[in-house]
Amino acid sequence: MSQSDRGLRRLAAGTLLVAFQGTTAPDWVSRELEQGLGGVTLFGFNVHGPDQMRALTTALRAAGEPVISLDEEGGDVTRLAYHVGSPYPGNAALGTVDDVELTRRVYRAIGSDLAACGVNLDMAPSADVNTEADNPVIGTRSFGADAELVSRHTVAAVEGLQSVRVAACVKHFPGHGATRVDSHLAVPVVDVSVEVLRERELAPFRAAIGAGARSVMTAHVAVPAVTGDTPATLSPAALTGLLRGELGYDGVVITDALDMHAITKSVGLAGGAVLSLAAGSDLLCLGPLPSYDDVTHLVAEIVAAVRDGRLPLSRLEEAAARVEALRAWFGAPADAADDLATIGLDAARRAVRLTGEPRPLVEPLVIEVDTPPTLAVGDVPWGVGPWLPDAEIVRVGPAAADAAALLARAENRSLVVVVKDAHRHEASQKLVSSLVAARPDTTVIEMGLPVWQPGSAAYIATYGAARANAQAAVELLTPLTPLAG
């Protein structure tokens, strides 16, 4: 391979953020980092604990200068705490409190945890304005439905993360909040005018850019007024025209995972990579599905696209310069800040909302109504079980649950029902309604968005299913013996 060929391959590899299975990096990742690979994206299956994470990221740095990223939003979406649930409430809870200094401190704590593990880029915060209550993928990941509220908290989140030299990645441009389709599965459409887009969807991104956000993530959503039926990730009108041109953004643009069906089922993984780079992205996030063979094929396809004129060489050089500037900005791994240790629980306590009055608990039966996890969240544990050790906890699928049998089991006992986004699941509503009709003294805990309320004696809204949210809810049921932080 000639020197020019090696240089072109290095530029192509430098656009990729790859994923891998396991808690140590396979040999091929180390080899590729030595040859210019852009970096890695880590998932819950890569995480065992802080010491293991620090060892993993140290090994990755020994092979190159990688961007080391993951999704740590707090709330439902966590990678560091994937196996136990996040100690921080997510955006919906923070937006409910509406204290920008609190949001800044929570994200500074998250950034401190990431820096201590050697992670230098957080694929957060979500800047989506969640105007569609039935949104299957955003929901509690958004600060709310008001563009001004989302804007000010997005700025606070960016400032909090970047105060400890962890780059924020503001997502999902140009906005995923007004959709009813999960882009992991198909191409959602945001069918609004350019004027509405500017005033609503783009407002938080404009604010984040003004606050110095180091990176922005694209959305696999089509905005007919701007992109036609093309996802924004593949659209020059969205990335070069709107983001670079109109909003004046010159930081790093990172794609949402290219292995999502919105891309793979339309133009394919390799086709999506080339089209997205041509449209204006700088780093291609591959997600957990592509193999090493896929990675080598992608690099070869990007090289071929440069040679046959589909992708200008100048685009790869521009991307490399932006990523190099980001690397120069990164801080060294640092210890976690002790003074931020309790901020998550403090924030969750401020966010939780109680309607009615819970009855004193007597041999409580807790029915947790199962909700299928989204692909963005994954199979993160949720519920109140860890905070009610003396209760009987029953996890049920709503469609198959026997309400009469559950009611018989709860006779002469306190009944607590825990749901998550019940407004999106008719079977959950039906089950909870039948339980509350027979037992109006029931306490219902909603760990998603509190859109649907069943009229129970007490109703607790946590605005998220993080571990901290659950503890804050249980403290309202046991007010005389609050749990330690």
UniProtKB/TrEMBL annotation:
Tell me which positions the record assigns to the signal sequence: none
- An example of a Gene Ontology BP annotation on this entry? carbohydrate metabolic process
What keywords appear on the UniProt entry?
Answer: Glycosidase, Hydrolase
* Entry-linked SUPFAM superfamilies: (Trans)glycosidases
Q: Which GO terms describe its molecular function?
A: hydrolase activity, hydrolyzing O-glycosyl compounds
PROSITE patterns per UniProt: GLYCOSYL_HYDROL_F3 (PS00775)
Tell me which residues make up the Glycoside hydrolase family 3 N-terminal domain.
Answer: 34-324
**Which InterPro entries would you find in this protein's record?**
GH, Glyco_hydro_3_AS, Glyco_hydro_3_N, Glyco_hydro_3_N_sf, NagZ_Beta-hexosaminidase
Q: Which domain of life is it from?
A: Bacteria
Keyword RNA-binding listed? The answer is: no
The protein's matches in Pfam families, at most eight in alphabetical order, are given as:
Glyco_hydro_3
Entry's family note: Belongs to the glycosyl hydrolase 3 family.
Its protein name is Beta-N-acetylhexosaminidase
Protein source organism = Nonomuraea pusilla
